């Protein structure tokens, strides 16, 4: 991917647009246009269904501040645990919940994903495949293949890390609509025979394609986007947010824990995801990449791209204005699910970030001058 390719493309589009204008202004063009018969609009039979589906998916994620939905995932756990990462087959499963006192059961497919968690967790991370037909008139209608961010081990602290990661999605949602939406559920994991393995909080994450459709920007899956491709504000925002949470486990260039949305001008908007290796989560299994100069994930290191300095200034102010609402998330319904000592350590960790951005010298040296100029 090179900037030249995008520049050439935009030049060609401009030439096409100019040519269209010139043709429209030629003598007789207006008369000919008026004389042309009106074309009857052909309705896309799938358009309404897609619109309804997107509306339903949006409604599903609107419920992320209420009491988490209690859901039971039933499948052959032994087979799922034996599958290998993204190469495993789709397995039969059901999702069930109670609506107005009545049980609702939806047949779905699930498939393992990822590498590290597959090797190290009691229950592997999975992706759902939810049929439009079988999920009609249920809370899951509108979802296709969302990720389930599930517990790693049946342990209270591991569950706290899930809650913390959910908070990070909520924070980024507050900072920008150009973000993944998520919903917290209380998931019971049951074997086909009915034996319950665990009941823990989990996150159902909005699919990249649904996010792109909701925001009206196509998703770009090509790797290689450098600093000169960034929409400046979101280029700064992603970098500062990742620094805020102490996350170095991402790469815009390699599309690692990052999605890209393409703008009409050729610039891209990076959207972060998967924060369990961040310093604020501070999972005991999380370690930094040995290639970077930190010894533990709790240490902050800016890994964002370089953008104009004024964009960093705007983002710093955005975080200052958002400080009270961000901190308030740790005292609301979801925040009260977290351990008090974990919340206290989280807010102290955030305090360190605010101390940095409120000191112009530190902000300049730790963030603005530390930005990445290439991949």
Task: Explain what this protein looks like in three dimensions.
By secondary structure, the chain is α+β, with helices and mostly antiparallel strands. It is built from 11 helices and 10 strands. It has 2 domains: 49-208, no CATH class; 217-368, no CATH class. A 7-stranded mixed barrel has the order 1-2-3-4-5-7-6. Strands 8-9-10 form a 3-stranded antiparallel β-sheet. The radius of gyration is 24 Å and the shape is globular.
Name the features.
alpha+beta, 10 strands, 39% helix, globular, seven-stranded mixed barrel
Please state the CA-atom Rg, rounded to the nearest Å: 24 Å
**End-to-end distance:** 12 Å
Proportion of residues in helical segments = 25-40%
* Arithmetic mean of pLDDT: 88
- Overall structural class, as computed from helix and strand content, comes to alpha+beta
Q: Biggest β-sheet: count, sense, barrel?
A: 7 strands, mixed, barrel
Work out the strand percent: 15-25%
Task: Please indicate the count of domains.
Answer: 2
Which overall shape is indicated by the principal axes computed on the Cα atoms?
A: globular
Q: Detail the poorly predicted runs.
A: 4-36
The H-and-E topology, N to C, reads as: HHHEHEEHEEHEEHEHEEHHH
Number of helices: 11
Order of strands side by side in the largest beta sheet?
Answer: 1-2-3-4-5-7-6
Number of strands: 10
């Amino acid at each position: 991917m090179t900037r030249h390719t995008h520049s050439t493309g935009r030049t060609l589009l401009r030439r096409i647009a100019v040519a269209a204008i010139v043709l429209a202004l030629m003598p007789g063009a207006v008369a000919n246009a008026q004389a042309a018969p009106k074309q009857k609009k052909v309705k896309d039979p799938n358009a309404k269904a897609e619109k309804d589906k997107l509306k339903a998916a949006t409604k599903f994620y609107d419920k992320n501040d209420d009491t988490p939905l209690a859901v039971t995932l039933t499948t052959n756990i032994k087979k799922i645990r034996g599958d290998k990462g993204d190469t495993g087959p789709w397995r039969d499963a059901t999702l069930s919940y109670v609506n107005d006192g009545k049980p609702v059961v939806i047949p779905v497919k699930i498939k393992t994903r990822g590498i590290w968690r597959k090797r190290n967790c009691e229950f592997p991370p999975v992706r759902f495949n939810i049929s439009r037909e079988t999920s009609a008139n249920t809370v899951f209608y509108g979802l296709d293949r969302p990720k389930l961010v599930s517990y790693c081990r049946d342990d209270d602290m591991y569950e706290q890390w899930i809650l913390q990661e959910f908070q990070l999605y909520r924070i980024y949602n507050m900072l920008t609509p150009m973000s993944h939406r998520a919903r917290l559920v209380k998931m019971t994991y049951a074997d086909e025979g009915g034996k319950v393995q665990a009941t823990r909080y989990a996150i159902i994450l909005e699919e990249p394609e649904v996010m792109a459709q909701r925001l009206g920007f196509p998703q770009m899956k090509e790797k290689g986007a450098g600093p000169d491709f960034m929409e400046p504000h979101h280029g700064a925002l992603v970098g500062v947010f990742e620094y805020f949470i102490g996350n170095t486990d991402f790469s815009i260039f390699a599309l690692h824990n990052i999605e890209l949305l393409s703008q009409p001008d050729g610039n891209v908007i990076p959207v972060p995801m998967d924060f369990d290796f961040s310093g604020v989560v501070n999972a005991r299994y999380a370690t930094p990449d040995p290639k970077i100069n930190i010894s533990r994930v709790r240490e902050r290191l800016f890994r964002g791209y370089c953008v104009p300095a004024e964009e960093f200034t705007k983002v710093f102010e955005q975080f200052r204005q958002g400080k009270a609402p961000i901190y308030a998330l740790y005292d609301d319904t979801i925040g009260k699910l977290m351990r008090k000592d974990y919340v206290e350590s989280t807010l102290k960790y955030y305090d360190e970030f605010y101390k940095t951005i409120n000191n112009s010298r530190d902000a300049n040296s730790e963030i603005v001058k530390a930005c990445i100029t290439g991949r």
